[in-house]
Amino acid sequence: MEGENHAVKAVNVLRSRICDPKFIFFDDSPDSNYSKLKFMISSSVTEACNNSILLLGPRGSGKSAVLELVIQYLMQEYPDSISVIRLNGLLHSDDISAFKEIARQLCMEHQLVFSKAASFDDNSQFMMAMLKECGLAHKTVIFVLDEFDLFAQGKQRLLYSLLDAMQSITSQAVVVGISCRLDADQLLEKRVRSRFSHRKLLFLPPSMEDSQRLLMHMLTLPIDSSFPHDYAVEFNKKVQNIIEDRRFKETLNKFLNIDSAVKDLLRFLFCAVSHMDLQTGFLSRENFEIAFFSIQRHPKLEFLRNCTELELYMLVCMKSLEVKEQSLCNFNSVMKGNICCYNRGQSFSSNHYYINVYWLGFRHLIDLEEISFLNFHCLNISPRKMQVLIDYYPICEELLSFRILPNLLRLKQF
Fold first, then answer.
1. Which residues form the signal peptide (predicted)?
2. 309 — phi, psi (to 5°)?
3. How does pLDDT run across 163-180, given as a tens digit for each residue?
4. Structural domains of the chain sorted by starting position, each given as residue range(s) with its CATH number in brackets
5. CB under 8 Å, gap of 24 or more: what pairs does 369-378 form?
6. Closest to 51 in 3D by CA, of 65, 69, 70
């Protein structure tokens, strides 16, 4: 019973770590993006200089998490010298809505009355005046522009106004752009690019070695804690053996080839920890394999279990047409291909009964969203082009569990 209590406590500790961005992304080494970003923004605050920075990298690589950690640090270190304005390109890419949102947040920050009826020019002038006031009060305004590439569309008046105001010695501001487009700075107009600081931080997906180090960091229990010393040492030893195991490395490599983002790796770890056996109190390689198969389960593949044998043959035929470099096909081509293999060469193309059977199966696949039409304006169902919404390799792996696979192999459809 006592061992099970230690196991429950270990699971809770590991789960809390996985859900804590500070434990994951906090890195004081000089080469880390956290240290670089903290130095750039903190120097702008302490030295009263303007700056503009771009955080670039794929989604889920930790850009926003690292920025939030830096802002939390600055809020604690300089509580009266920081003001944060947050915009999102999905909501505020329009200049009018962007300036209105900036004015609203500035009014809320400084306890002023916000006017919803204010015009675009009024909000723009108000922002410029507030930047000067904050500069005179030695207060830095940090503008966080999420989805930065969306602000670079259109006339870019917001970006020009912000970066142009930062050229004045009376203002004190930092613009931090976050984008998953690596060429986001190339989208800027010449007048905007000339005022940009051209400081960029690149967030890359973790490599195999980085992922292994992260796993050791996340899954190692502290020795000098409330856990028994022998239990913590044995737990850490088993974790190290799992990470060094060849079959575990193969599983981890498969996962990274599909989902290489940090957030996906954390989700994988959380699922593995949740499957830990509480009776033994230790993680095992099987926990990670179960997590891998449960996470990688394709939602559309679940519906394949509700398909008939004929419908599976139709999917196989469509995938075989794609392999033959016919990326698009229609009902007639799929039906003819299935008549040759499923009905053992008998000709039923002129029989309305079999045409209706095939069409019912076709409709079922459409309802399950396994396939979809590309041209909805054509009234005749036969020539309408369509595509399969399932990847090639997942459907091959899924068909391994069906009894019809030997027939498919004999027919050399795959």
1. none
2. -65, -40
3. 988 888 788 899 999 999
4. 31-202 (3.40.50.300), 207-295 (no CATH), 301-410 (1.10.10)
5. 369/300, 369/303, 370/300, 370/303, 370/304, 370/307, 370/315, 371/315, 371/318, 374/328
6. 70
Residue where the block lists tokens 């994951």: 24
**One-letter amino acid for residue 400 of the chain:** L
Contact (CB, 8 A) for 169 and 21: no
Asked if residue 378 lies in contact with residue 330, where contact means CB atoms within 8 angstroms, the answer is no
273-302 confidence digits (pLDDT tens): 999 988 888 999 999 988 888 876 666 666
Q: What does pTM read for this prediction?
A: 0.71
pLDDT tens for 64-113 read 999 999 999 999 998 888 999 999 998 888 888 999 999 999 999 888 88
Q: Please give the radius of gyration of the chain, using alpha carbons only, rounded to the nearest integer.
A: 29
Place of tokens 């906090």: 26
- Name all contacts of 1-7 with Cβ < 8 Å and 24+ positions apart: 3/231, 3/279, 3/281, 4/278, 4/279, 4/281, 6/227, 6/228, 6/231, 6/281, 7/276, 7/277, 7/278, 7/279, 7/280, 7/281, 7/282
Does residue 371 contact residue 321 with C-beta atoms inside 8 Å?
Answer: no
What is the side-by-side order of every strand in the sheet holding 173-179?
A: 82-88, 140-146, 173-179, 51-56, 199-202
Q: Where are the beta strands (DSSP E) in 121-182?
A: 140-146, 173-179
Which residues touch 214 (CB under 8 Å, ≥6 apart)?
Answer: 24, 206, 262, 265
**In Å, what is the CA distance from 312 to each residue of 159, 261, 281, 408?**
53, 33, 43, 10
